[in-house]
Amino acid sequence: MTDLTRIDGAELAGLLASGEVSSVEATQAHLDRIAAVDGEIHAFLHVNAGALDEARRIDERRAAGEQLHELAGAPVAIKDVLCTIGMPSTSGSRILEGWVPPYDATPVARLKAAGLVALGKTNMDEFAMGSSTEHSAYGPTRNPWDRERIPGGSGGGSAAAVAAFEAPFALGSDTGGSIRQPAAVTGSVGVKPTYGGVSRYGAIALASSLDQVGPVSRTVLDSALIHDVIGGHDPHDSTSLQREWPSFAAAAREGAAAGSLQGLKVGVIRELDSEGIAPDVHARFQEAVRLIEGAGGEVVEVSVPSIEYAVAAYYLILPAEASSNLARFDSVRFGLRVERPGQTVEDVMAASREAGFGAEVKRRIILGTYALSAGYYDAYYGSAQQVRTLIQRDFDAAFAQVDLLVSPAAPTTAFRFGEKVGDPLAMYANDITTIPANLAGIPGMALPMGLGDDGLPVGLQLLAPLFEDARLYRAGATIEALLAEQWGGILAHQAPQLTEVAR
Amino acid sequence: MKDRLMDFDEALERYEPVLGFEVHVELGTRTKMFSAAPNPAHPDHHDAAPNTLIDPLSLGLPGSLPVVNEEAVRYSISLGLALGCEIAESSRFARKNYYYPDVPKNYQISQYDEPIAFEGEVEIELADGRRFQIPIERAHMEEDAGKLTHVGGATGRIQGAEYSLVDYNRAGVPLVEIVTKPIVGAERDAPELAKAYVAAIRDIVLSLGISEARMERGNLRCDANVSLRPRGQERFGTRTETKNVNSMRSVERAVRYEIQRQAAILAAGGTIVQETRHWHEDTGRTSAGRPKSDADDYRYFPEPDLLPVQPDRALVEELRAALPEQPVARKRRLKAEWGFTDLEFQDVVNADLLATVEATVAAGAAPGSARKWWTGEIARLANDRGVEASSLVSPEHVAELQRLVDGGALTDRLARQALEGVIAGEGSPTEVVAARGLQVVSDESALVAAVDEALAAQPDVLQKIRDGKVQAAGAVIGAVMKAMRGQADAARVREIVLERASQA
Amino acid sequence: MSEITREQVQHLAGLARIALTDDEVTSLTTELGAIVDAIAKVSEAVGPDVPATSHPVPLANVTRADVEGGTLTHEQAFAGAPSHDGERFRVSAILGEEQ
User: Which among A35, A62, B286, B408 is placed 20 to 30 Å from B175, CA to CA?
Assistant: First the structure.
């Protein structure tokens, strides 16, 4: 019988819809896989004890002849940043250990409504601050390609879960690359939708004007299928866009079947094609560009000069908003409380936050507090918001020339644990490829484009204008199909086999 | 510790007071400012148990997000217009960051550099009819905090409490904060002006129907800024901000107190500390709160979870057209229409009976009669019962009562008895009169017989009347009224007494 | 070179309500100094004529109708609370004053 964990989400959904496979079987297969490999990978912080019950209910509804969503019964992993009824939602932080929200985040509610079965909650850097999951309060996630390497971050858990075949689909959140960079270094696909394309309601906020929830999977189509479910207007999020979105799955299928690159104007971002990009990543990128040209794409070089200031602007805006968003963790209504008799509430709050937050979170809160404080606001936060305008203008100008922009999704392959954790600036600089899209609000995708000299995955980033998420799926699916043809299948299957421990 | 106070007149001789006010108005929308949780400032939810009017945003739960209440925006625009303000083309929310257990997100969503309304003017009137224009700097939208209860310690106050309990029902109630510019020139009227200003805001808010504006409930809250400057000095002195002033009378007293306190300090060569002060209703004093410091670094920044509010100009004009008459203009009009003296009118205003008298007049009573009823008998009964006069009886019933008097069916005394019946819930005045048998005895023969009987019983009085001592008739009238159990017209009885005495 | 001092970090920690240890203050002073040096260049990038962007997609007037929605039960509200009395959340004594 087919190994239900090795097939694509779309294929699994087909088997579920046709009744060849039950949701209980599909869910059990993934729970078994988690039990077998997650001790090693640590992609999950929590496994849903109710998953099989949920799967059974879907099977019953299907058996009763109910018309279900095309993904009904398929399992999905959920990043711990998202609120889930009945499952702890900690955002990777000690301060929220064991906190079970009384409400579901909108993307989670929409997955449930479509009949997907939540496998559990995935690991992440604490409050999504980091690029390696080394900042998780619950220990790092390991890269399924090399367990001495980081799986990226902050959404290393979701990326590792799909790369290790523990889930076909996962949800992530992307504030400066937290979906795309982990996808790149684990050989997966991840999409940051247009800002406002997916509701932020119930996503534990890092930086409100940058955060966006999106899909993580092994194929472009699988991400598109999830995006179709979670996207669209939500009245609970004021920044949620009110527009009719096309079917992203249709776009992906179209791109995979027909090829979509003929005559497509593709821009290579000059500022992301040289300095700081590792030679092997650069080499794979050149090959990807030639592949696009070979498929009829018209490739030109374009400039987004303000990218020079993107990391600096990002590391002002993010900490500033985060310092305020994280103020609610004060030990009064939820979360960790550390108290000694006779202490005032001020002392209790300060002691609880000292004990509950990790070093990176404290660093960014202090930095954000500084950036917003009287006398510095204009020079820092104000200027950073102006840089955002420049970056948007640069992208507007670039997209006046081309349909799609491309760059490496991350400057290097997965680095080793401990390599950058002591050097925040080096860690921050690593985000240069992904940050600009968040500052501008535009959609971005990371998908595999081969292996580096170390045999580890290298990711290609596609960027489209605001609202043109479908363009990513169409082009991404074409590129994915061309590469799969070369490789004899998607990259994820080239990952080394993990040793399964007996349950 | 007791503050030293300077005599008020002396303080005014030496220093000029400068005032400023921040008035918070809770809007009575159905839901909160940024979430669909029920609003405790709406009449339907006054008696809600603690932490029952809460949703994820009211508790600041991780992942919760704000969405602006469109009705609260409309109310705010109406209030801004009624304050004579410009309504911003574009206005936005900002986060005011500070930690306090009753602030669930540890930031308050407020407005900072782009308030919804700015640059207005409110006309107020003092008791003697003099008017002041109070310059308004801005009116902005924000959300209220929760409520703390301090437990343990002697007084239940914050000092000495062992722990505190937090109820987040009020967290997120829509507020408009109205901020004045510095008010100069009030001089010795400063305390009264303070009271009149808060009264004017309350009247405006009530006329708009956007809040119950009950100060004792915290629907309307006033922070009063007071500073003094020596005569002839241009620069403003250091100000204090007195909080927790929960009635209009307290606003007046607190301003007076601060003027006297600050004057004593300045005269002794001291300096005023810029600080918040707390008004204590029981002792009539203010006490020092937290000094202003760099801890007041609120790190305002534009609220990234909300978008700008750019009021549709057509909506603004629609709301402007729908504004009710300004309270001061209305008072002026009513005083003229009713022909009251300053004193009579002020009685009505002070008793908070303007709308009630207006309704009574509208129901058919003459203004003078309406005023007498409400400021006289009804006020007395209300006072005895410790309730608001307007809660005892409806203006329509008062007008009906007066109609019965005017038509001769009731004497004043009978009317008072009928009023008691109405208040006791026995029905309308006409019903009470019928049920209690309170009609005036207008049967002439019965009256004549009663008079004859009384005169016969008091021959000495009869003789006095005949001798021209007409005032002696009072004793006979009293006896007749008593015999008729009060149900006679005393004036008519007097006429009959004099007539019969001269005839017999 | 950065202008960040120990005192500044201590002040910021007070504003942010985090009881940093002395060691943390020391390391943060150094780290913040380096970070601030690296990010200070934003102020060179722009002139006064560039408007600020606070939202990536400019929208306005996103509001909701004044219609009541659901509320949390006490059970839901207090499930994650460190301390409560069944009706209200409980906190240690508050130093200072009523706001």
Answer: B286
Is residue C83 a part of any domain in this protein? no
Closest chain B C-alpha to A427 CA, distance in angstroms: 26
Distances from the Cα of A449 to the Cα of A168, A183, A249, A269, A459, angstroms: 20, 11, 21, 17, 5
Residue C97 scores a pLDDT above 80: no
Residues A256 and A329 in one domain: no
- What digits encode the pLDDT tens for the residues B470-482? 888 888 888 888 8
With an 8 Å Cβ cutoff, is B163 touching chain C?
yes
Q: Tell me if A345 and C91 make a contact (CB, 8 A cut-off).
A: yes
* CA angle A171–A177–A183, rounded 5-degree value: 55
Q: Work out the pLDDT band at B129, boundaries 50, 70, 90.
A: confident
Per domain, the residue ranges of chain B are 8-320, 325-436, 444-503
List the subunits that have 3+ CB pairs under 8 angstroms with B: A, C
Mean pLDDT, consecutive 10-residue segments, chain A of 503 residues? 92 97 98 97 98 98 96 98 98 98 98 98 98 97 97 97 98 98 98 98 98 98 98 98 97 93 97 89 97 97 96 96 98 96 92 98 97 88 95 98 98 94 84 97 98 98 98 98 96 92 66
Task: Please list every residue in chain A whose beta carbon sits closer than 8 Å to the beta carbon of residue C85.
Answer: none
CB B438 within 8 A of CB B418: yes
Residue range of the domain that includes A120: 9-307+389-502
Q: How many domains does chain C have?
A: 1
Instruction: Supply the pLDDT for residue A107.
Output: 98
Same domain, yes or no: A301 and A342? no
Euclidean distance between CA atoms A124 and B142, whole angstroms: 35
Phi/psi at B158 (nearest 5 deg)? -70, -40
* Res B444: pLDDT: 76
The answer for residues whose C-beta is within 8 angstroms of residue A285's C-beta and 6 or more apart is A273, A277, A406, A407, A408, A449, A458, A460
Same domain for A448 and A326, yes or no, is no
Q: Is residue A1 part of a domain?
A: no
Tell me, letter by letter, the H, E, C secondary structure of B130-191: CEEEEEEEEEEEEECCCEEEEECCCCCCCCCCCEEEEECCCCCCEEEEEEECCECCCHHHHH
Q: How many domains does chain A have?
A: 2
B431 Cβ contact partners less than 8 Å away, ≥ 6 residues apart = none
Reading the block at residue A51, the tokens are 């998953």
Return the structure tokens found at A298. 């018209």
- The correct answer on CATH 1.10.10.10 for the domain covering B444-503 is no
The helix (H) or strand (E) run that includes residue B480 is helix B473-483
**Residue of C14, C55, C88 with shortest CB distance to B166:** C88
Q: Which of A328-332, B37-41, B178-182, C50-54 has the lowest mean pLDDT?
A: C50-54
Active site residues of A: 79, 154, 178
Residue A198 per-residue DSSP state: B
Rounded to a whole number of angstroms, the distance from the CA of C23 to the nearest CA of chain B is 24
The identity of residue A153, as a single letter, is: G
Domain that holds residue C40: 6-45
Dihedral sign from CA coordinates of B407, B412, B417, B421: positive
Cβ B220 vs Cβ B214: under 8 Å: yes
Is A72 contained in some domain? yes
Tell whether B51 is within 8 A of chain C (Cβ): yes
B199 pLDDT above the threshold of 50:
yes
Cα–Cα distance for residue pair B271/B286, rounded to 1 Å: 17
In angstroms, the CA A456 to CA A278 distance is 13
Say whether both A291 and A377 belong to one domain: no
pLDDT score of B75: 98
Q: Is the dihedral of CA A254, A255, A259, A262 positive or negative?
A: positive
Torsion sign (Cα): B155, B157, B160, B163: positive
For residue A292, tell me if it sits in a domain.
Answer: yes
Report B:324-363 residues touching C (Cβ under 8 A): none
